[in-house]
Recover the amino acids of this structure.
């Protein structure tokens, strides 16, 4: 059981949150986010585009009320993975980014991905979470595996070679039970 503390999420406000997100997505640890050269205005535009999209949503994750992570939820039938795999009913795509810090807390990122998965599976319609991280992002592959994701295959997206992976509600619960 995590002793990290409570997490909450709120919808991202592209205008108000752009400066904060800009610091996060341009940080060297966020290289796989592929926004290293983005300006604050670029970040605001990208998240305004997501906010306006019917099938893609962004949220700011809070830890003890303070911004701590970014979470994106998308419908893979319409965003990110169109034509790259055959979506099943109840599939939900996910991205997450933990805020950079000078004082890392052991287990924090694992607690964040667990909170993200809990948030996604809180919707009874979600049957399986889909991710497509860069094949070179070994740290996130290990985190994904720790919460129950099973890699299926590598795929070519326009911006990267990705590892398509899935986690059912049952796989997530089993992984949580194994780590409790």
């Amino acid at each position: 059981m995590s002793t990290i503390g409570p997490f909450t999420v709120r919808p991202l406000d592209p205008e108000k949150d752009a400066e904060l997100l800009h610091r996060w997505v341009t940080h060297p640890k966020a290289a796989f986010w592929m926004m290293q050269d983005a300006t604050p205005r670029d970040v605001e535009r990208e998240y305004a585009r997501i906010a306006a999209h019917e099938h893609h949503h962004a949220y700011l994750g809070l830890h003890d009320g303070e911004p701590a992570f970014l979470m994106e939820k998308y419908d893979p039938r319409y965003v990110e993975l169109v034509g790259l795999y055959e979506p099943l009913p109840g599939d939900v795509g996910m991205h997450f980014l933990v805020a950079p810090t000078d004082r890392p807390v052991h287990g924090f990122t694992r607690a964040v991905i667990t909170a993200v998965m809990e948030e996604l599976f809180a919707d009874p319609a979600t049957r399986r979470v889909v991710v497509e991280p860069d094949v070179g992002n070994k740290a996130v592959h290990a985190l994904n595996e720790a919460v129950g994701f099973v890699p299926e295959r590598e795929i070519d997206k326009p911006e990267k070679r990705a590892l398509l992976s899935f986690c059912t509600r049952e796989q997530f619960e089993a992984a949580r039970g194994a780590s409790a």
Observations:
- The chain has five helices and seven strands.
- Residues 108-121 form the longest helix (14 residues).
